[in-house]
Predict the 3D structure of the following.
Amino acid sequence: MAKNERPGIFQPERTPLDVTFLVFSGASIMCVASAIDPLRAANRIAGEILFNFKLVSVSGDPAMTTCGLPVAVSGKFDPAAKTDMIVVVAGFGTQGYATGSFLQGLRRAARSARACGGVEAGTWLVARAGLLEGRAATTHWEDMEDFAAAFPGTDVRPDRYVIDGPVFTTGGASPTFDLMLHLVRSRLGMAAALDVASVFIYDQSRAATDAQPLVSLGRLDGYDPRLAQAIRLMEAHVDQPLGMAAIAKRAGVTPRTLEGIFNKSIGETPGAYYLRLRLTAARKLVVDTRVPMADIAARTGFSSAAAFSRAFSRSFGRSPTALRKD
């Protein structure tokens, strides 16, 4: 720990931790809930307030989540307010919030807090405030390449969540839940963390360094590991697609057997599924970013922008250019 860093919050300690959740409109309601509810449950299980949390927004108005539900807040973000932990929860539209005055306020608040971090797109705001320079961090897998290019001084990792000194970052809702369980476990012990997980019937807790999956398989891994392995190979080679024979060989089956597994489990051939996976990744880049179409084509394994546009139009009924204009 550097000399200018306070003792970390991820250590045994029953002193109440003051937590400020700074929530932005455009955040996912699942990210908000995954950040807050584990701490609420820990308080209930402990029978005392060990996590004293509050929700604020930049303006003091409710934050409107992507599903249309507003998140009530107790007031306006005050950089001078005393707190131990600041959690920036954000989603779409973070660029519009990254004003000079806000970033200055976030830096000021982070200096006096014991820990500060970002959930999903909140990582962008934390980085723009200069808090991730020279640090390791993560963000949602959709943004990872652009994030790494925007912040070359940050060690960007594909992990579910990253804790580097007093700064933490998560890739999305489920990793945020894992981070909060880790916080409960670190401070109150394994039994308390298991009790919190049991409240939500949550038995898929992952390690921080587990990679973020492009495709969330849920419990599919337990039903047919060959199918899971094939899908993981596909998601790892979106930009340079593997042939079906190569995928089958790595999964330990013949191409014919692989086709049977996909048809039985998913209802389509492995080739059709692979193409749909790539096009789904492409669609997100078309809708959510301003990345040029030629770059999107290259990132998702198409030989040219024209080939990409034809495949995209067949799948979604509209060209990528037309979809972006809407």
